[in-house]
Amino acid sequence: MNLESLKPEIEANVPGCRLEILSNPSPSGQHTLLVDPEHALAIATYLRDAADLRFDYCSNVTGIDWPAPEAPGKMKLKEMEEDLEQDDDAQAPGHLEAVYHLYSMEKKHGPVILRMRTEDRARRVHLPSLTPVWRSADFQEREIFDLFGIIFDGHPDLRRLLMWEEFKDHPMRRDYVEPDDYEYEPTAHDEVLRKTMHHHAKHQ
Predict the structure, then answer these.
(1) More confident site: 79 or 19
(2) How confident is the model at residue 79 (pLDDT cuts 50, 70, 90)?
(3) 201 and 147 in one domain?
(4) How far apart are CA 97 and CA 152, in angstroms?
């Protein structure tokens, strides 16, 4: 699917939408279409329903964490986010992405790859759910919510999928720090056991 021709077609049929083609220099050459969250649901509906497109199948949804480079003075990302909590007007570093791979089973073409970006990766992490358009996105958006922390507005059942409800943080974030006590590990062994013993020794 040629994104250069698809982009103006979408823009003509979804007034006000903002689209950008992101080039992929790898051998696969799978370029992607960055869509603005405000119009994402309308864009998705058009891609599914347009007679010449009929992107009726979402095969895969994944998350990406894009932290910003270290600030001057090598302030760590976690320190920057803690500092930003004191300033609601500050722009948090980096952003999160949700990436959707679309195919048409009816027309036998694809993929078209859509990307959506959050405003930041600290507090403004909302994106619209595309599950109402492609039911196959349901569990995959839940996995992204669980592991990356993107909140999908309009999702029919947004809750953790792999981690338990009381779990804190999101394990696929690039600045995630794993616990050193592993109280939830039923059979601690090897490196896990060493970390557990070290943790308890520090807290005796």
Answers:
(1) 19
(2) low
(3) no
(4) 12
DSSP per-residue codes, 35-103:
E-GGGHHHHHHHHHH-TTT---EEEEEEEEEEPPPPBTTTB-HHHHHHHHTT-TTSPPS-EEEEEEEEE
* Pairing, β 95-104 against β 109-117: antiparallel
Do 105 and 118 share a domain, yes or no? Answer: yes
pTM for this prediction? 0.81
CA distance 72 to 69: 9
Q: Which amino acid is at 79?
A: E
Token code pair at residue 94: 């980096």
Q: Convert the pLDDT of each residue in 110-143 to its tens digit.
A: 999 999 999 999 899 999 999 999 999 999 999 9
75 confidence band (pLDDT: 50, 70, 90)? very low
154 vs 122, residue with greater confidence: 154
Whether the CB-CB separation of 19 and 6 falls below 8 Å is answered with no
- In eight-state DSSP terms, residue 119 is S
Q: Residue 74 is part of which domain span?
A: 3-169
186, 101: one domain: no
Same domain? 133 vs 118? yes
